């Protein structure tokens, strides 16, 4: 039981104190994000119900590193497949099957290929889950509509260049529907 | 049921089997004692006992949790007291003899832990030389037939002999009653012809004491042959034939390779003559009505109707004697005048122009080195005797009499239908009160029209000495249950001076006695004494007889005891002396026999025939034989009316269509089979089927053809019977194991003419140059291989049953044979070549080829079939999950799948199982293993003896049983082995070589002694029987 | 730039989309749904009974025999695996090609893939003689001495291919659903619903950084699934192509099988989508006639490819000069089992030709009927390949026939029960259209241009 509590405490997040603004128009929202960044605030989050184009460069989010994970995991999978088929068929249990060579590489390629894909795919997903800090048990929600039709900016109190007054003005000026103190 | 504790303690002798079977109360007690009943614990009143309840709960729980049936748990029993001659796990071999109709086999019985499991050929026997037949192999399973009676029984009959209440009696009681009856006199004895001189002596002793008249009758008789020789040469013994001496064999409606007289030794001799030595081999010409197994081996084959047999023979005789002036009768007026009537029969016979003269000129080139054979059920028409006389005449003209064929003194087949008729007469005239029947099943094998069945009902006491309550047993009052041949002593004189012993290989399984044992008991009880009758048992009697009759002749230096033991060891004593035949001169007045009888039929005629599988039907209850594909039609589990292709067209009969055949006033429905190569106007029907009380396996399978036989002027006619055919709208599915009969022009069986063979052996084989991409595996130790000589193989199928017996191969029944699920590991493919109306036939045994590049191995996901370092393709049953991919990928389709659980056979059949061979579980694949267990066994033995395996140390089951030695098995790495030599011979070829499977089995081309092959180049091409898709 | 037709009809807002799609999950299903579900369950019961009997008594209950060692089970296995391929194709390949119209059908197509593969996966196991030992096909360390599987066997390739395919498809499907599950969680009033969907959504929050990785992974999975889906049916085709059997031993099989798979798969998507449109009228705005037409075009194209394959098989058989090969194909078209061949040709080559006409392509009843025919035809394609090749091979003495038993029928019909049971449950329990993917393409083809795309 105790271990489960630990597990939950590990994945559950009470979130952090912060200040949020809510938009309905994604274009204003992207602009707001850009302005916020230009105003020197760092480490804030932009929440949207679907991936927004332009938000990355607006917030200066770099290209994801996950392709590298995929590449090396796939490589590992392939190598393992090659080694495993060779070791089982030619080393650990060499046996005359249909007069074929013990190490019949052409026949093993499908196995090697499938393992490459499997390793690549699963580790990519694993990387995603890890980097997004999933799974999370009921994280605080600023506004349930943020997964429906609204867009929100959230600036933690701890963020560099956090100034609630300045942010309030900025958000309102960018056409935010609502601004509020909250946890996220 | 009452509680066991309530039973009063029973005296010890109550445990004796006799009283056991007699006393019903005891049975009840036994029941309570041995069966655990739910009430066993509770004191009799209702409700379940606690333990039982828990047990059942547990069982049901197990059932619910266990979805899938796993290996059945069986109770095993420790082997406590070991007889010293038995070494556990090692087989013991006992030489013995087996008698089948007219042929006596030298056999060796393999027993394990005291139970016989397989019959093999005895190489010491001069006639069969180790050759076997399908029936001889299957004989073992009759020993373990669950339908055998377990002891002597008495039938409580009403006057109609239809009351079927049977009670068990003790031998004491039965002997008492029987002897009383015998004392009353008016005794008759009806037996099959017994090959045993000792038995015949005993029978005469019995007759002397009881005044019994002895009648002898064979279900498939040879009296016509005897009669013919009596008329021709004044000597009624069956002929002795030396086919290996014959360069030219003419068989006229005679199936000497399959069913006539002594087929196994004939095949042996025939094969010797067929080996092309310095450009010469014998030529077989067959003139017949139905396509017989002999016909399938013919070089040239012509079709006539049974009613035309005599015409053909006489036409030939006329050609030889009167036209070509061959032989010593050319000037004899009686002969020439008799023959003159047959001057131009050829036209009436519908044979191709000039056939008779061609045959005559060919055969006359081989005077004294040819043989003409006729006889058997198909030529057993009203002309039967005349046909024999004609045959003898021709053989005399060609002076073959005395060189290739001559008088023998075989004790076999002395039976005659005359005896049956006179028996019936004396019954009618009230001279038979008590009738003892043994060795024949007349109620089944005699037609109602013979009147025997009716007569039998008039006999007040019928004593049947048989092993079951069969058709005859049902009508008898006492069944003095007989032991199986493998349970009883006996001897045989297969041919003049060749004596062989039949020794039991197991104590009688049940409370049974051999016929001779019973006869001896009765004879002595009748006050028989003195001479051999002093002996205390049949065994003693037999021994004494041998001392007086065989030992004396043998003039051996050994003491009798040694002589006896040696005889038992080798199983045979050959006193026949010189092999030369005595020449008898033809008595010309015999020709009158011919002018007297002439038969001619305008319409369709029926001819009965016996099959290689079932013979007269005495082994019909052996499932192996019922599922044995007929060598000609490849159909099993049925008999059927054979129709020629022409008649089928005219009558619009399709395969399996029901027809109604009317003979006299009796008509019978049955399925039709369309048989290529059958003469127009002839319908064939096999005997041995249609048993009604033979046992669970054979009852109701097919129709009883014996019922069609007709009595004409005191003779039983089985051929040339006029019939009317009515085609019915119904159809019926015949279980044929081969759905397609043409090679489709593919290179499967390669044929060569003798000329081609001499010039360039294997020249007709189209060979491919095969390449490989990678280094191939080496087989440094042994490399097992096999060659099959298609030129020697007659397609008799002995190997099929040998393999079945050796490898615990199950039978699946007709329903599943129809789905192509038969399990045989070796099968014999039969293809027709040339025009369907009269094709050539080729046989090809197919076993697992044990390919070096086995397609089955590479596709098995779990490596359940892999290659051994001795080149065998091994099947690991317990690893197999049953994907059946291997079977799909096998180009030869030799793999068999256990679609259901075939392993649980009815007790005691399981006793016939070979412990050396795994019994396969449901859902696994199986196939020929090259008898891997024999290989291992031999390797161990030779290792123990510190030797290496020599060629010939090791024989596989099919090879061992082959009467023509067509199969050769051995080590390919041993350059001196026969198989290695044959592998490299030019006429050897691989089946489907172009697939580069590198089979370890090679075939030798079939050589035909003809000018040109049918179907010419491209082997086959014809679509004989294309419509015969049985698997649909 | 040519004018695009809108992908979503009836000028929706983001809110409308969410409401529309979530409604299915949030409302109690109508009676007609349960009726459909029950009938699917009934078929599934048949499946359980038929296969149960076979496992208990033995494979002998089915029509398979000697020489036809493979029958209904393998045919149906290949059939369902084929069905699955369209799902991956729509969700992965069309994604890579930036086909925006895929978005509204991708989710359901993927679901179809997952369920089809689940159904298919049962058959190779159940067709073995001893299914309870099927795990022996996995190379796991064991105590039977060194004992591994035979990696040369196409069946082992199958094990790897199909299991990989199943795993990746499920992951792909699930990852795609996570944001939508989060949406449902956020809309949930009932605490249990909140908990369940909360757990399923893994606590997804949709921050820009998460979306950034998420899109990348989605693309990677698409990139991996594409060669995977091609490999899977190629490997399935190896089951036949690697064998020696005339009619199986064919190099054209991999592309031929893949084309066939896509063909049958799209037919099945059309079947399902027409059903969905009937069961859920609202979805007509998302699964528009344009979608259906696009799929019908693909059906016709792949149908032509398959037809080409049929033709070239005959040509190669003749051209090879191998008598067995030649006979095998003549036997297919004119032998005792020709009926199955002509059913195949009619359903797969002739009938789809109606899609040359736009009116037919855009006619719901027509496309429904055609899609059914295509599915039948594709089942028979596998039947023709498997059975008619086996029943007459090298040695005429082995030639036999194949007959269906009631258990064969039970296995085929029942498998649809299994598939539809799963599918119907999915329709009501999970977002049947990808909310997060539809929203970005909402503006495509609307007045004021394509805003979803800067």
Q: Could you tell me how far the N terminus lies from the C terminus of chain B, measured between alpha carbons in angstroms?
A: 52 Å
SS-derived structural category of chain B? alpha/beta
Taken from the alpha-carbon principal axes, the silhouette of chain B is: globular
**Shape summary of chain C:** globular
Order of helices and strands of chain C: HHHHHHHHHHHHHHH
Q: For the report, how would you describe the main beta sheet of chain B?
A: 7 strands, mixed
Read across the widest sheet of chain B, the strand sequence of neighbours is 5-4-16-15-14-6-7
**Structural class of the secondary structure composition of chain C?**
mainly alpha
Total count of strands of chain C: 0
Percent of residues in β-strands of chain C? under 5%
Helix content of chain C: 55-70%
Low-confidence stretches of chain C: 448-454
Give the uncertain stretches of chain B in residue-range form: 1-20, 29-46, 66-70, 1017-1032
What keywords describe this structure?
heterotrimer, A: 184 residues, alpha+beta, four-stranded antiparallel sheet, 6 helices, 4 strands, B: 1032 residues, alpha/beta, seven-stranded mixed sheet, 32 helices, 42 strands, 28% helix, globular, disordered N terminus, disordered C terminus
């Amino acid at each position: 039981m105790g271990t489960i509590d630990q597990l939950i405490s590990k994945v559950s997040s009470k979130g952090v104190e912060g200040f949020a603004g809510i938009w309905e128009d994604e274009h204003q929202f992207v602009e707001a994000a850009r302005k916020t960044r230009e105003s020197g605030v760092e480490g804030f989050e932009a929440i949207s119900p679907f991936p927004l184009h332009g938000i990355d460069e607006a917030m200066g989010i770099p290209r994801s590193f996950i392709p590298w994970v995929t590449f090396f995991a796939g490589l590992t999978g392939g190598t393992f497949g090659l080694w495993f088929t060779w070791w089982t068929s030619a080393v650990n249990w060499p046996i005359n099957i249909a007069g074929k060579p013990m190490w019949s590489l052409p026949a093993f390629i499908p196995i090697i290929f499938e393992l490459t894909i499997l390793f690549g795919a699963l580790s990519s997903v694993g990387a995603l889950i890890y980097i997004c800090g999933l799974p999370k048990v009921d994280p605080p929600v600023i506004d349930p509509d943020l997964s429906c039709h609204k867009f929100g900016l959230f600036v933690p109190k701890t963020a560099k260049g956090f100034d609630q007054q300045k942010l309030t003005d900025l958000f309102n000026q960018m056409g935010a529907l609502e601004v509020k103190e909250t946890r996220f | 049921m009452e509680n066991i504790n309530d039973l009063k303690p029973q005296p010890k002798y109550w445990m004796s089997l006799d009283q056991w079977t007699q006393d019903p109360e005891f049975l009840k007690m036994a029941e309570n004692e041995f069966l655990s009943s739910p009430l066993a614990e509770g004191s009799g009143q209702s409700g379940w006992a606690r333990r039982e309840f828990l047990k059942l709960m547990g069982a049901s729980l197990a059932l619910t949790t266990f979805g899938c049936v796993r290996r059945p748990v069986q109770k095993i029993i420790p082997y406590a007291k070991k007889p010293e001659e038995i070494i556990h796990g090692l087989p013991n071999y006992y030489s013995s003899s087996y008698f089948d109709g007219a042929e006596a086999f030298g056999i060796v019985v393999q027993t394990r832990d005291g139970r016989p499991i397989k019959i093999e050929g005895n190489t010491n026997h001069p006639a069969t030389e180790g050759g076997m037949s399908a029936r001889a192999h299957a004989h073992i399973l009759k020993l373990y037939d669950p339908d055998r009676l377990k002891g002597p029984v008495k039938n409580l009959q009403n006057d109609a002999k239809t009351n079927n209440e049977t009670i068990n009696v003790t031998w004491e009681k039965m002997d008492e009653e029987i002897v009383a009856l015998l004392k009353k006199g008016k005794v008759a004895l009806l037996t099959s012809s017994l090959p045993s001189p000792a038995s015949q002596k005993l029978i005469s002793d019995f007759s002397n004491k009881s005044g019994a008249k002895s009648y002898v009758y064979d279900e498939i008789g040879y009296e016509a042959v005897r009669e013919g020789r009596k008329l021709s040469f004044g000597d009624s013994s069956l002929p002795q034939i030396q086919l290996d001496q014959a360069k030219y064999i003419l068989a006229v409606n005679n199936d000497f390779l399959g069913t006539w007289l002594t087929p196994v030794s004939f095949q042996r001799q025939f094969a010797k003559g067929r080996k092309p030595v310095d450009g010469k081999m014998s030529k077989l010409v067959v003139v017949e009505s139905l396509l017989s197994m002999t016909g399938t081996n013919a070089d040239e084959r012509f079709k006539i109707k049974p009613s035309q047999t005599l015409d053909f023979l006489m036409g030939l005789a006329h050609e030889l004697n009167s036209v070509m002036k061959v032989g010593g009768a050319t000037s004899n007026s009686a002969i020439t005048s008799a023959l003159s009537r047959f001057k131009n029969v050829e036209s009436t016979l519908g044979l191709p122009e000039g056939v008779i003269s061609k045959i005559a000129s060919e055969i006359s080139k081989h005077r004294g080195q040819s043989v003409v054979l006729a006889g058997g059920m198909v030529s057993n028409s009203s002309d039967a005797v005349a046909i024999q006389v004609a045959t003898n005449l021709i053989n005399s003209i060609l002076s073959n009499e005395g060189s290739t064929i001559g008088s023998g003194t075989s004790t076999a087949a002395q039976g005659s239908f005359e005896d049956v008729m006179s028996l019936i007469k004396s019954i009618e005239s009230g001279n038979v009160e008590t009738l003892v029947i043994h060795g024949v099943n007349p109620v089944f094998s005699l037609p109602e029209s013979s009147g025997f069945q009716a007569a039998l009902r008039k006999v007040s006491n019928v004593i049947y000495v048989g092993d079951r309550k069969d058709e005859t047993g049902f009508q008898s009052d006492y069944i003095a249950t007989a032991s199986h041949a493998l349970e009883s002593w006996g001897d045989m004189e297969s041919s003049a001076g060749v004596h062989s012993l039949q020794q039991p290989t197991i104590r009688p399984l049940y409370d049974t006695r051999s016929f001779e044992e019973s006869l001896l008991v009765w004879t002595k009880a009748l006050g028989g004494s003195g001479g051999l009758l002093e002996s205390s048992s049949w065994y003693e009697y037999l021994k004494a007889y041998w001392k007086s009759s065989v030992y004396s002749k043998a003039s051996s230096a050994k003491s009798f005891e040694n002589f006896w033991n040696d005889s038992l060891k080798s199983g045979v004593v050959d006193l026949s002396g010189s092999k030369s035949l005595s020449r008898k001169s033809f008595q010309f007045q015999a020709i009158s026999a011919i002018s007297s009888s002439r038969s001619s039929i305008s319409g369709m005629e029926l001819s009965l025939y016996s099959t290689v599988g079932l013979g007269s039907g005495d082994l019909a209850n052996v499932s192996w034989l019922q599922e044995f594909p007929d060598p000609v039609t490849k159909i099993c589990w049925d008999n059927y009316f054979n129709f020629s292709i022409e008649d089928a067209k005219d009558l619009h009969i399709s395969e399996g269509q029901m027809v109604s055949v009317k003979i006299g006033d009796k008509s019978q429905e049955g399925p039709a089979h369309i048989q290529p190569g059958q003469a127009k106007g002839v319908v064939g029907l096999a005997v041995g089927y249609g048993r009604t009380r033979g046992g669970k396996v054979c009852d109701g399978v097919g129709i009883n053809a014996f019922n069609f036989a007709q009595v004409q002027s005191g003779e039983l006619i089985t051929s040339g019977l006029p019939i009317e055919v009515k085609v019915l709208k119904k159809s019926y599915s015949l279980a044929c194991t081969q759905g397609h009969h043409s090679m489709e022009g593919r290179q499967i069986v390669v044929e060569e003419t003798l000329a081609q063979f001499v010039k360039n052996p294997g020249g007709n084989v189209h060979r491919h140059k095969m390449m490989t991409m990678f280094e191939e595996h080496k087989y440094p130790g042994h490399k097992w291989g096999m060659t099959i000589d298609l030129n020697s193989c007659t397609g008799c199928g002995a190997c099929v049953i040998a393999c079945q017996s050796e490898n615990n191969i199950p039978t699946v029944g007709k329903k599943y044979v129809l789905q192509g699920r038969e399990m045989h590991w070796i099968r014999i493919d039969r293809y027709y070549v040339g025009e369907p109306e009269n094709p050539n036939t080729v046989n090809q045994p197919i076993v697992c080829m044990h390919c070096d590049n086995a397609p089955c191995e590479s596709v098995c996901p779990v490596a359940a079939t892999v290659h051994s370092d001795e080149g065998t393709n091994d099947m690991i049953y317990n690893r197999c999950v049953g994907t059946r991919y291997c079977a799909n990928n096998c180009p030869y389709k030799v793999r068999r799948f256990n679609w259901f659980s075939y392993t649980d056979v009815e007790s005691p059949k399981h006793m016939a199982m070979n412990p050396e061979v795994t019994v396969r579980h449901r859902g696994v694949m199986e196939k020929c293993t090259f008898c891997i267990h024999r290989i291992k066994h031999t390797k161990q033995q030779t290792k123990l003896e510190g030797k290496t395996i020599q060629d010939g140390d090791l024989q596989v089951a099919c090879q061992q049983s082959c009467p023509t030695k067509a199969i050769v098995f051995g080590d390919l790495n041993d350059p001196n082995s026969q198989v290695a030599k044959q592998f490299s011979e030019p006429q050897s070829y691989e089946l489907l070589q172009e697939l580069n499977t590198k089979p370890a089995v090679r075939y030798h081309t079939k050589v035909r002694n003809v000018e040109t092959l049918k179907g010419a180049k491209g082997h086959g091409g014809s679509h004989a029987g294309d419509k015969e898709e049985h698997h649909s | 730039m040519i004018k695009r037709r809108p992908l979503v009809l009836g000028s929706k807002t983001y809110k409308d989309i969410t409401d529309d799609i979530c409604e299915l999950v949030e409302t109690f299903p109508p009676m007609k749904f349960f009726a459909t579900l029950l009938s699917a369950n009934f078929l599934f019961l048949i499946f359980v009974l038929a296969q149960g009997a076979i496992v208990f008594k033995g494979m002998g209950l089915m029509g398979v025999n000697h020489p036809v060692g493979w029958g209904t089970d393998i045919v149906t296995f290949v059939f369902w695996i084929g069905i699955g391929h369209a799902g991956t194709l729509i969700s992965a390949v069309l994604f890579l090609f930036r086909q925006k119209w895929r978005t509204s059908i991708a989710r359901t197509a993927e679901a179809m893939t997952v369920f089809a593969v689940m159904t298919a996966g049962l058959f190779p196991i159940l067709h073995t003689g001893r299914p309870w030992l099927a795990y022996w096909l996995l190379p796991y360390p064991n105590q039977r001495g060194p004992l591994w599987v035979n990696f040369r066997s196409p069946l082992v390739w199958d094990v790897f291919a199909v299991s990989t395919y199943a795993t990746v498809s499920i992951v792909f499907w699930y990852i795609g659903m996570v944001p939508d599950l989060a949406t449902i969680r956020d809309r949930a009033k009932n605490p249990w619903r909140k908990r369940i969907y909360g757990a399923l959504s893994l606590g997804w929050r949709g921050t820009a950084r998460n979306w950034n990785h998420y899109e990348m992974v989605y693309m990677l999975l698409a990139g991996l699934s594409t060669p995977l889906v091609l490999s899977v049916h190629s490997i399935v085709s190896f089951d036949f192509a690697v064998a020696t059997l005339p009619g199986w031993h064919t190099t054209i099989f991999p592309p031929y099988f893949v084309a066939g798979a896509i063909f049958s798969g799209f037919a099945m998507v059309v079947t399902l989508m027409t059903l969905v449109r009937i069961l859920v009228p609202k979805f007509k705005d998302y699964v528009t006639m344009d979608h259906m037409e696009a799929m019908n075009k693909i059906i016709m194209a792949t149908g032509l490819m398959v037809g080409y394959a049929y033709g070239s098989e005959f040509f190669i058989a003749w051209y090879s000069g191998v008598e067995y090969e030649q006979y095998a194909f003549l036997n297919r078209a004119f032998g005792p089992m020709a009926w199955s061949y002509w059913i195949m040709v009619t359903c797969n080559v002739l009938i789809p030709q109606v899609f040359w006409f736009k009116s037919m392509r855009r006619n719901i009843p027509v496309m429904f009927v055609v899609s059914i025919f295509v599915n039948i035809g594709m089942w028979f394609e596998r039947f023709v390949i498997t059975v008619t090749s086996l029943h007459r091979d090298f040695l005429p003495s082995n030639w036999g026939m194949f007959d269906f038993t009631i258990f064969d029928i039970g296995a085929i019909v029942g498998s649809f029960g299994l598939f539809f049971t799963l599918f119907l449950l999915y329709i009501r329990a999970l977002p049947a259209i990808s909310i997060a993917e539809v929203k970005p393409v909402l503006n495509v083809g609307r007045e004021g241009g394509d805003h979803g795309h800067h």
